[in-house]
Amino acid sequence: MYPNKKREKAIELLIKYDYSIASVIAELGYPSRAALKLWRKQYLQAKETGRARERTRRKSKYTPEQKQTAVSYYLEHGRSLMRTIRALGYPCRDTLRQWCAELHPRQRKQKRSIAHFTREQKRKAVIALCSRNDSAKQVAESAGVSRVCLYNWKTKLLGKGGNRVMKDKREASLPEEKERKLAELKDLEVKIRRARLELDLLEAAAEIIKKGQGVDLVRLTNKEKAMLVDALRSKHTLRSVLTALKLSRSSYYYQCAIKRIEDKYEQLRVRIVELFIENNSCYGYRRMHELLKKEGKRVSEKVVRALMTAANLVVAVTRRRKYNSYQGEATPAPENLLERNFHATNPNLKWLTDISEFHIPAGKAYLSPIVDCFDGALVSWTISTSPDADMVNSMLDMATSTLRKGESPILHSDRGGHYRWPGFLERIERSGLIRSMSKKGCSPDNAACEGLFGRIKNEFFYNRSWVGVSITKFMNCLDDYLHWYNNGRIKLSLGGMSPMEYRRNLGLAI
Q1: Is the pTM of this model over 0.90?
Q2: Average pLDDT in the 259-288 region?
């Protein structure tokens, strides 16, 4: 219902908008089209008669005597609304209730408060009913309910068949939570199945194909994967196992078809095992092939080898160790004093030495130089056809003859036997040199001397034909090159000067 002010406002807008009902409703938001038409009709009628239509009150269709009769019957016959209506044929329940409130307000039947029972109370009452220690009436009275209510509880709790559990109102009121829990449960079940499948695959791989722990199932051959699938088909679906092994269905059935094909070497396998055992397990595949050939069995050596490998027929052989005359180091090795630091601030502080071989058609020649780390100059060198003690000792004698009083450079070498012979050690001690040696088998510890050999061979030895050159001539050519290396070959690290020229430029005596 709308007050008169709102009605008048709507009628004024209707007149203003030339009786456009849609425009009025669009602006005001009320009323409905039918209500606005009714207001318009009432407005026009009032305009014609000159006064507004008064609202009339609907006349009651029941007399006061009928009201009194109905209320009296209600009070005298148990105060039941439906019994009164059935007996008199009037009125409706709401009307009768209204009459009772008007005529006898205190005599109206009061509603009893509904007792609320917990789920646990209902469960105990149903258990007492089902146990039948007392009658249903006694159980209902002890629970404070009627027999009908007690049986309703039983139906809700156990169902008509006695197996259904009473639904919790909270579950019914939370369907989304229930769906979410079910989805989580399904995800957990999938993860458990996947983990169980992976564990079964690993156990089957260890048992059937003898693969240890840490095996990569994807890297197995298709034949091995097919064996695992056959072993687990009773526990898991074919699709899940194939997916876990990344094996296509066609490849699996291909392996199954291969197994059904008759093995054409079945009898030959048995005979090879028999021959291997008869001959004290001493024959390899070549002699086994000869035995089979004598028996008239023509097969390839490769087939025999493959069949023996498949049957794990291996000849037990004790491998003898290669002869090695090494009996350890002759003398204790000194420390590595250079630690790969091949830079020196003055001459005769750090010397390097080693031996390199030159192989030509006429024979072999050996070079043993001493290199100064100050400028890379060759302090001394010897060339010989044999890397013996005389070559190394003479090289050391020439180098120590260039030293001044008080100079005692560090002489670094590898751990070769040439630098541990008594004669070499005596010369070291007499000249006051300090020994330093590389780690065993570690050429980078003497990298500067190795680099010298590389330059000599790249510039002098490689990419030349030494055919027809005698070993003596080769040694003379090498000696000439080394003189040129010291006096004529320029080095960019020395400012474009040779080592000897560099020393003269610094005013160092040679």
Answers
A1: no
A2: 89
